[in-house]
Amino acid sequence: MYIMTVVGMWFSTRYRNKYLSCNEDKKLLIITPSIRGGGAEKVAVLLVKYINRRKFKPVLLTFRTGQTHELPSNTRIISLDIRGRIYFKFFSILLRLIQIIRWEKPTVILSFLTHCNLLTVMATKLSRVKTIVVLSEHGPLNLQLKLEPHVSSVVKRFGVKVLYRLADALIVVSKGMKIEFVRKFSLPSGKIRIIYNPIDSEEITQLSKENINHPYFKENIPIIITVGRLVPEKGHSYLIKAFRIVRKLRRCKLLIIGNGPMRKELEQLANELEIRQDVAFLGFQKNPFKYLAKSDVFVLPSLIEGFGLAIVEAMACGIPVVATNCPWGPGEIVINNVNGLLVPPADEKALAKAILAILNDKKFSEQMASKGRQFAAIFDVKKRIREYEDFFEYLLRTGV
Predict the structure, then answer these.
(1) Is there a cis peptide before residue 10, judged by omega within 30 degrees of 0?
(2) Per-residue pLDDT tens digits for 72-81
(3) Residue 400: what pLDDT?
(4) 324 - beta bridge partners?
(5) Are 95 and 129 in contact (CB under 8 A)?
(6) Is 66 left (phi over 0), alpha (psi -120 to 50) or beta?
(7) Phi and psi for 336 in degrees, rounded to 5?
(8) 126 phi, psi to nearest 5 deg
(9) Which of 266, 236, 233 is closest to 145 using CA atoms?
(10) Which ranges constitute the DSSP H helices of the chain?
(11) Bridge partners of 283?
């Protein structure tokens, strides 16, 4: 502990001019891996944009430089500019976080995602700064750890069970996630708060009106669309197989928006199924909403989810939704046969049947889209950000 303190003081002196700031009342330090994309990062950006600055003054700290999300011009950003894998530079990041927390002296710290959360708890305790520490998770961690290498999984699981207890609260984005953290990580239920992810309805509506220059939209053919990272847990292979079934029965096209390590594998699958000419991989799109609003059905084929933000965004664009009832989230958003269709995960036949049910019945499709748009209003950013504000004020008021 003594050595850590001495080294931390050295960092404090070295970086003092870079990070020193005035001691504003109720400063909120938001810590996130990056603001390059992803649901959690998107929520962090919306918090910076919409939080009531008469209540909390946000400062955004990111581990990596670069951004794909727009931020207000007056946003204070601290970037650690970490290159390479975070866990290879664990102690370097930890020391820098200790120094930053000492100089910023935030009233509340809100951290996003597991790596950031573990580092934030350690840095806060070692900094000896009195602050409220709130962690947030946006995915089914227990299921995600099963997909990781054994050593990494064991270390993270131990870290979550021990260090998360030292935080003042944990925010999760679905009821299923709360149950998982209580049962699988033995965290106290009273420390966990559910706050559903927000969407910026006004911005989505505005962006959805932009024109599209893509050949698929010049033909009078139904378009099936999905948005998400190209990783195994998102289940894209099942959607591609389902699309092959659908296409045998009627002409249609498939749009896949998102980047990820599985792109080549998924393109090869489309080739093997002899449907590649009707499947477009668009990669990351800064504005996916213009594609969503002009497509005929949105499909979320995930095997696991924390919430399923893309579902709500699709609903806000007025497009009918088909989603897998996977752990966790989609079943808390989609009411089957009311505002969308739910099917079992990892089942291309069920996906195909649901897609055809919407494509073959215009009245049913319009009904799903209308109900979905109404339901999406519940997740409007102004309502959800107020929940964060109220929760922070509750923690401060009760002196947790």
Answers:
(1) no
(2) 888 999 998 8
(3) 65
(4) 343
(5) no
(6) left
(7) -55, 130
(8) -75, -25
(9) 233
(10) 2-14, 16-19, 39-50, 90-104, 114-127, 141-146, 150-163, 175-185, 201-207, 236-249, 263-272, 289-293, 309-316, 330-333, 348-359, 362-376, 381-398
(11) 257
Cα angle vertex 198, ends 282, 74, to 5°?
A: 90
Phi, psi of 233 (to 5 degrees): -70, -10
Question: CB atoms < 10 A from the CB of 224, how many?
Answer: 26
For residues 111-128, average pLDDT: 96
Q: Are 121 and 164 in contact (CB under 8 A)?
A: yes
Measured from the Cβ of residue 310, the count of other Cβ atoms closer than 10 Å reads 26
Would the pTM of this model clear 0.85, i.e. be above it?
yes
The Cα 260–Cα 262 span in angstroms is 6
Q: Which residue has the tokens 């220059």?
A: 213
Task: Please give the Cα distance from 279 to 246 (Å, whole number).
Answer: 13
Burial of 330 (0-12, 13-18, 19+ CB in 10 A): buried
Using the structure block, give the residue that is written with the tokens 């089957």.
336
Instruction: Give the CA angle between residues 195, 198, 203 to the nearest 5°.
Output: 170
Neighbour-count burial of 79, counting CB atoms closer than 10 A to its CB (0-12 exposed, 13-18 middle, 19+ buried): middle
Mean pLDDT, range 84-99, rounded to an integer: 83
| Nearby residues of 224 by Cβ (< 8 Å), 6 or more positions away | 239, 243, 246, 252, 253, 254, 255, 295, 296, 297, 299, 355
C-alpha span between 313 and 71 (Å, rounded) = 19
Quick check: 130 and 49 in contact, CB under 8 A?
Answer: no
Q: What are phi and psi of 53, to 5 degrees?
A: -75, -5
